Predict the 3D structure of the following.
Amino acid sequence: MLDYDEEAQRYDALRGGEPRAAAAAEAVLGLIPDQARELCDIACGTGLVTRRFAADRPGLRVTGVDLAAAMTRMAASRLPGRVVRADSRRLPFAGARFDAVVSVWLLHLLSGPQEVGAVIAECARVLRPGGVYVTTVDKGAAHNVGSDIDAVLAARPRSPVHDAAADVAACAARHGLVPAGHARFRGHGQGRSPRRALMDLRRGWFVTVPPGDPLAEHIAARLAELPDQDRPRPDPVFTLRAFRKPA
């Protein structure tokens, strides 16, 4: 996994910046009831999306949570006094605190079903009855857009998928949450170019082919041979699922 303290300064620039943040916030807020007054953004990262929740929904009080110190500092600069450094598996909040809980681009990073279950259990715990939990699912699959780059990357071993939609729904059900909708949004600025894919490969983005591995070198050589080295291929489209805590 990437070191997100190290990634913090370049995180937004490498992941679509404001256009992607705007698309994500709009899609998430479309799944959250208008009457919601307290929202918790789990794994809020740099706070780029988090601050849009507050700006785009007047009257919504937003709290951000992240474990990486550098990410937390950046988020706190965007939402002063509203960001907490904490582990999403052990949230520092009383039960039934929030009307909405959000975890965008988090579950796929966890080490396995046990950790996914722990995070979803905590999100369910801090939700008020009638509250809604919104999360991304199938994140890795969204990046496979059928491009020539994807054809080259198909040679790498696949990572286990911990955020499959069906598995997340089953886990949510075990913690008393029921389906409450879905949405999709475009990852603006995240379409890979061959040169960008090669850069990601060199910095360890693809965890199953670490830098220096012979397979990584083979994939790097094939990426370098692709045409239009700086032309981004299509952007990914991400999927959100919403779950409600029955009143």
